[in-house]
Design a protein that fits this description.
The complex is a heterodimer of chains A (181) and B (278). By secondary structure, chain A is an alpha/beta fold. In chain A, 21% of the residues lie in helices and 27% in strands. Chain A has a single domain, classed as fumarase (Alpha-Beta Barrel), CATH 3.20.130. The chains are: A alpha/beta (181), B alpha/beta (278).
Chain lengths: 181, 278
C-alpha cells in the first residue's frame, strides 16, 4: 500500500531511505531546475574544479524548462521533461550528494545503481500537467546560465509539490513492463 | 488570382498557436473522460483526473497545458488560384513569432550543434500542398520534443507485409513506454518513401480521434493496432492501465516495388492542434 509523505528540503538520507515505489511525496522547500544544456555546463564546471551554482548536498533537481511567466505569476507552465537525456550526468551528481531528481520516463541501469549506492530516489511528476504543477510553485528566480533561456538554472520555491516515487533507493521500479508476446 | 493579406495569415497562425497550447481539443477532452471511466487501476484514474484538472486550469488561467509548447508544425493546403501578400512562409513565421511571444509560450527551436535557441520559435516546419481553388487551409500542430523523440522511420521488406508493420508499431510503443507522455496518439505512415512516410504519419495526427478511416480495411487495421497497443498495459504515464494510446491513425501512399517504408509518429496525450480556412 502506498504512503503519502510530506517532506521538506534539503532531503536527508533517512527521508529518502524510507520511500518505496508508489509512495506519494508532497514536497515543500527549494528545488533547482536543470535540463540538457544546464547539465552539460554543470559537468564541465565539475571537470574544471569550479564551484557549482547551487549546493548539491541534499538537493533535488527538477528536469524542466518552464514556459515564460505571464504578468502576475512566478512562472509559466512547469511540468517535467523526459529524464533519460540526463542519465549520463545523474550518477556523478548523486555521488556528490544530490538526493533526488524529478522528471518523467525511464532511467538507465546506471542511474538505478547510483540511486542504491548513494541513497537517492527518482520521482515522477505528471507529464503534460504543466499548468497544474505550476500552481504549486510559489517563487522562481534564475541563479545561473541565464543565456540558456528556458534551460537556465532556476531556484524554485515549492509548496506541497506532488511527486510519485518511480525508482527508490532499494532498486524498485514503479513503471509497468509492457506485455509483449 | 485571389490575394490574401499577410496580416490575416499572421493573425490566424498566432491565434492557433496560442489556442492550441492552452485549450485541449474537444475530442481529446471527451476521450479522456471516456477512457478514465473504463480504467480500474487507481493510478490510471488519478492521472486522468490530473490531466482533466490541468485542462480546466489551462483554459481558465491561459497558462499552457504543457511547458513544452512545441516546435510549430504547419500543414498547408494552398489553392493554386491564391497568393499571400509578401509570401506564405514569411507570414507563417511571423504568426508563429507573434503567437509564441504574446501567448507566453516557450521557444524551443535551437541550432542542432551549438544548441543556441533561435529566440522566437522559428523557423516553423511547414508542409505545403497545392490544391485546386483559391482557398488557404492552414493546420497548426504544437509538437513536443518528448513524444517526437520516440518516433521512427524504418524500411521493412515487402515480404513482411502487415504482420511486420503491426509488430514494428507495437514494439515501438512498448519501447517508448512512459517516455512520450502516454496515453499517446499514434500516426502511422505506410508507403511513399523516406520523407513521405514520415510526413503522412504526422499529418494523420490531425484527424479527429473518433473519426473512422474511409477505407474499411484501413479502419479495421487502425482498430487492430489500437487494441494491440492497449493490450501492452503501459497505461497513463506508464503506471499501468487499459489506455496506452487514445487512437491510431494510418495514412497510406504508393511506394517502390522494392520497399515497404514505415513511419511511426508518436504524439503526446494532449494532441494539440487547430486548423483554419482563409
Amino acid at each position: 500500500m502506498s504512503t503519502t509523505y510530506k517532506l521538506t528540503t534539503p532531503l536527508a538520507d533517512e527521508d529518502v531511505a524510507k520511500l518505496a515505489i508508489g509512495d506519494v511525496v508532497l514536497l515543500t522547500g527549494t528545488i533547482y531546475t536543470a535540463r540538457d544544456a544546464a547539465h552539460k555546463r554543470l559537468v564541465e564546471s565539475l571537470d574544471k574544479g569550479e564551484p557549482l551554482p547551487f549546493d548539491l548536498k541534499g538537493a533535488l533537481i527538477y528536469y524542466v524548462g518552464p514556459s515564460p511567466a505571464p504578468p502576475g505569476r512566478p512562472i509559466g507552465a512547469a511540468g517535467p521533461t523526459t529524464s533519460y537525456r540526463m542519465d549520463s550526468y545523474a550518477p556523478r551528481l548523486h555521488s556528490l550528494g544530490l538526493k533526488a531528481t524529478i522528471g518523467k520516463g525511464k532511467r538507465s541501469d546506471e542511474v538505478k545503481a547510483a540511486l542504491k549506492q548513494y541513497t537517492a530516489v527518482y520521482f515522477g511528476a505528471t507529464g503534460g500537467a504543466g499548468a497544474l504543477l505550476s500552481q504549486r510553485i510559489k517563487a522562481a528566480r534564475v541563479i545561473a546560465y541565464e543565456d540558456l533561456g528556458p534551460e537556465a538554472i532556476r531556484e524554485l520555491t515549492v509548496e506541497d509539490f506532488p511527486l510519485l516515487v518511480i525508482n527508490d533507493a532499494k532498486g524498485g521500479e514503479l513503471y509497468v513492463k509492457p506485455k509483449l508476446d | 488570382m485571389r490575394t490574401i493579406a499577410a496580416a490575416d495569415v499572421i493573425e490566424a497562425v498566432a491565434t492557433m498557436a496560442m489556442e492550441s497550447n492552452v485549450e485541449l481539443p474537444a475530442d481529446v477532452w471527451a476521450k479522456f473522460r471516456e477512457c478514465a471511466a473504463r480504467e480500474e487501476a487507481p493510478a490510471a484514474r488519478e492521472i486522468f483526473r490530473q490531466l482533466l484538472e490541468n485542462a480546466d486550469l489551462a483554459k481558465e488561467t491561459r497558462l499552457p497545458l504543457c511547458q513544452d509548447t512545441g516546435l510549430a508544425v504547419l500543414f498547408v493546403e494552398m489553392g493554386e488560384d491564391c497568393r499571400v501578400e509578401g509570401g506564405l512562409r514569411a507570414a507563417i513565421d511571423e504568426g508563429v513569432r507573434k503567437g509564441y511571444k504574446d501567448g507566453y509560450l516557450r521557444k524551443s527551436a535551437c541550432d542542432p550543434f551549438t544548441r543556441k535557441n533561435t529566440g522566437d520559435n522559428t523557423p516553423a516546419i511547414i508542409h505545403i500542398d497545392l490544391v485546386p481553388g483559391d482557398r488557404l487551409k492552414i493546420a497548426f500542430m504544437a509538437k513536443g520534443g518528448g513524444s517526437e523523440n520516440m518516433s521512427r522511420v524504418t524500411f521493412l521488406s515487402p515480404a513482411q507485409g502487415w504482420p511486420g508493420i503491426k509488430d514494428f508499431v507495437v514494439r515501438r510503443v512498448a519501447e517508448a513506454g512512459p517516455n512520450p507522455c502516454p496515453p499517446t496518439v499514434i500516426g502511422v505512415g505506410i508507403g511513399g518513401n523516406a520523407e513521405l512516410s514520415a510526413i503522412i504519419a504526422k499529418k494523420a495526427l490531425l484527424r479527429e480521434l473518433d473519426d473512422v478511416h474511409p477505407d474499411p480495411d484501413i479502419a479495421a487495421k487502425e482498430r487492430e493496432l489500437l487494441d494491440a497497443i492497449n493490450e501492452l498495459g503501459i497505461g497513463p504515464m506508464g503506471l499501468g492501465g487499459k489506455t496506452t494510446s487514445l487512437g491510431v491513425k494510418i495514412a497510406v501512399a504508393p511506394c517502390h516495388l522494392a520497399s515497404l517504408p514505415l513511419a511511426v509518429n508518436v504524439q503526446c496525450h494532449s494532441s494539440r492542434h487547430r486548423e483554419v480556412i482563409l
